[in-house]
Structures are given as C-alpha cells and as structure tokens.
Amino acid sequence: xxxxxxxxxxxxxxxxxxxxxxxxxxxxxxxxxxxxxxxxxxxxxxxxxxxxxxxxxxxxxxxxxxxxxxxxxxxxxxxxxxxxxxxxxxxxxxxxxxxxxxxxxxxxxxxxxxxxxx
Length: 118
Fold this sequence. Notes:
The chain is of the alpha/beta class. The protein has helices spanning 31-44, 60-75, 87-96, 98-101; strands at 3-10, 16-26, 47-58, 79-83.
C-alpha cells in the first residue's frame, strides 16, 4: 500500500484537476517514493488534489513533505490541496502543532495553508 492511483477529474465548475490517492502508512520509510511521485505530478499537472482518506498512519516527515510540495506548487503558480483527511492524518497534524499555528511551514500563508481549520 502507499500510492494507490493517479486520476484526472473535474470539479463541479468543470475545472480539471488530478487526484493522487494515498493509503496505508505514510512515514519516513516510504517518503522517498512519495517525493518522486509528487514531483512528477506537480510537473505534469497544474491542479493536484491529494486524497488522504485511506492513510492509516502519518508522521512528521510526511507532513513536512506535503508542506514542501505545497510551497513548491505555489512558487510555480500551481495549486495543491488535500482532501478527505483521515483521522490518522488529523492526529499527526494536531500533534505537530500545525493546526494551532496555521503556519506549519513558518510562512504566513494562512489563506492557503493545507492544514487550516476553516
């Protein structure tokens, strides 16, 4: 388990985006492969949604990689977001203090932060 699939979809407003579905454990042991997949996905797609519904375990390294990918996407004028955040990811985000600060990356991007509560 890990990276289940990549698919192209459309929003109700007919905006095209690609979805990367993750599952299982997303920890330091698997971070290298995920980094490669994220780089490819961001290179090939302008809008990327990462579906976290089936992530059973997440660690700080995983969260840091997602934040880094988010910053990279913004630098290149692309859009990256997360969807269907599992309880395991919510717990990791909370334990890391990302929600509390709404500044996980140390930059004030509260309007676009992946982990904003609202």
